[in-house]
Amino acid sequence: MNNPMYDEFAREYDSAIQNNSYNAHYERPSLLSLLPEVNEKTVIDLGCGPGLYSKFLVENGAKVTAVDGSQEMIQIVKEKLGDKIQCYVQNLADGLPNEQDQTFDVAVCPLMIHYLEDFTKLFSDIKRILKSDGIFIFSTHHPFVDYQLSPSGNYFLTEKIVDEWDTVGRPVRVEYYRRPLTSIIQAIVDAGMCVITLTEGEPDSHMQESSPESYQKLSTEPGFLFLKCKVVS
């Protein structure tokens, strides 16, 4: 999938999401609120990007493995965290072939699965590598929001979307997939996990000052979807 924001513009992206509205003041606090205590836990950060979650996890005592499809993002993570973390490049559409069964207490996957046309293999491998009491937490685009961009007008299809985002301060082409909520939940169930928490998040108070228009929008409309899942015994 052609997404230069995470390759060509990787460092600009890293800088932009440190304190912006949708990432820093909506997505991250919403997803972090679902995390269990991670001190001395083994955690895998899937679609780690420039390592903001990995840094938080390391600072809170977790033993972290970070994985991303972008070599540039993994290089940024290595520069930031060095030998405090294990990290490597992997096309997550192919799952997690390098990881052993029942290795991790927690898997986190922030805003990544919508870049995969099919995440069946990934979800299956997440279940495989989690311990029997393991937790999987992820965020993704809200299906009701993405449906507004559907080229077919058929909500129940999985469709490729081509858009432009100005995350790095100028329009950059992005490609991702939209799909119905049913497909997301069914993939979780088919992998042998169940949803224990589902939220639509909320902006934190800092956004009210930095971007009141975005704060109003995200306080009254959905933006992303946040799910916490556990392994079914």
UniProtKB/TrEMBL annotation:
E.C. no: 2.1.1.197
Pfam families with a match to the protein in the record: Methyltransf_11
Protein origin, superkingdom: Bacteria
CDD domains documented for this protein: AdoMet_MTases (cd02440)
This protein's UniProt keywords: Methyltransferase, Transferase
Residue span, Methyltransferase type domain: 45-138
GO biological process: methylation
UniProt GO molecular function: malonyl-CoA methyltransferase activity; S-adenosylmethionine-dependent methyltransferase activity
InterPro entries, A to Z: Methyltransf_11, SAM-dependent_MTases_sf
Protein name, per record: Malonyl-[acyl-carrier protein] O-methyltransferase
